[in-house]
Design brief:
46% of the residues lie in helices and 20% in strands. By secondary structure, it is of the alpha/beta class.
């Protein structure tokens, strides 16, 4: 990383997903082709800088998939279902002021990558509220077709948008979508393990 950004105080949010049986001694599989089926189960918040290291790091059980399963039955979601999601988020995340305030925040993978298709790469409070309105005005099938997204992902996007909204409020800065994430790292790790085993 460039020396010009080593003192920049950053926050990175990413969705953690169950994508494989990583604890299985037989992993990675011998087959050349295999599928990952990500199920968003948590949200990770990391705050720090390259120069000074990590100041804050915590994982919260606020995956969009988990929240959708718990709270949302209708398509599109009803207002009372969104309130259920908000209540769980507020009960789970720390209060405003308990997370160090960064100069810049990035959201990677998970809901952020899909929300970008709806409202663009700047996921500030206004954009995330607009995304929730869009997702609650039309069935997931119609939104998936309009924005070229998978319907299953659209179904969990309202919960994901509410999680990111709550994080943006607590961090005090807008979120910018950034490519990459934990899933890409997991895949690279599995490929590296295969190569090491063959060498």
């Amino acid at each position: 990383m460039s020396r010009f950004v080593t003192s920049l105080f950053l926050a990175v949010l990413f969705a953690s997903a169950v994508a494989c049986q990583a604890a299985d001694p037989g992993w990675p599989p011998d087959q050349t082709d295999f599928d990952l089926v990500p199920v968003p189960i948590s949200t990770e918040i990391v705050v720090g800088s390259v120069g000074d290291g990590i100041h804050f790091s915590h994982s919260y059980k606020l995956g969009s998939g988990r929240l959708t399963d718990l709270c949302i039955e209708h398509d599109p979601p009803r207002p009372f279902e969104l309130e259920r999601v908000r209540r769980i988020i507020d009960e789970t995340l720390p209060a405003i002021g308990e997370i160090p305030v960064p100069q810049h925040a990035s959201a990677v993978a998970g809901s952020a990558s899909n929300l970008r298709r709806l409202v663009g790469p700047l996921l500030d409070i206004e954009a995330l509220e607009r995304a929730v309105r869009i997702l609650c005005e039309h069935p997931s099938r119609r939104i998936a077709r309009r924005f070229e997204l998978e319907q299953e992902r659209v179904r969990i996007m309202p919960a994901g948008a509410l999680v990111l909204h709550a994080c943006a409020v607590r961090l005090g800065v807008p979120l910018w979508f950034c490519k990459g994430g934990i899933r890409e790292g997991a895949v690279l790790g599995m490929v590296a393990a295969r190569l090491d085993r063959k060498s």
